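Usage

Read records sequentially. Each one opens with the input sequence:
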Amino acid sequence: MKTGGYRRSLLRDIVKTATLTEHLKNISIYIIACQAHDIGPEHYRLNDFFHAMNHTTKHVMGGCSDLAGAREVWRLARTTFRSTPREV
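and closes with the structure output:
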């Protein structure tokens, strides 16, 4: 920022950092390191993971606060980013 100040991270920051990681050949994993504050808290988890996985083919790592959240992210990845979803 030109102001030298801070701002809350946005969904576009996840998109930009995931895209950057995709093009860096010496990095093999993308870690979601910011939280998108331009969406409601109830949508953080799925939007963060969706946009990260949609902008890099590398492994994506992020956090879930509970088992239900981990299951949501698993369903998202399984149904959205696999050509033939399967049960585990």
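Summary fields computed downstream for this record:
- Residues 21 and 27 are 7 Å apart (CA to CA).
- DSSP finds three helices and two strands in the chain.
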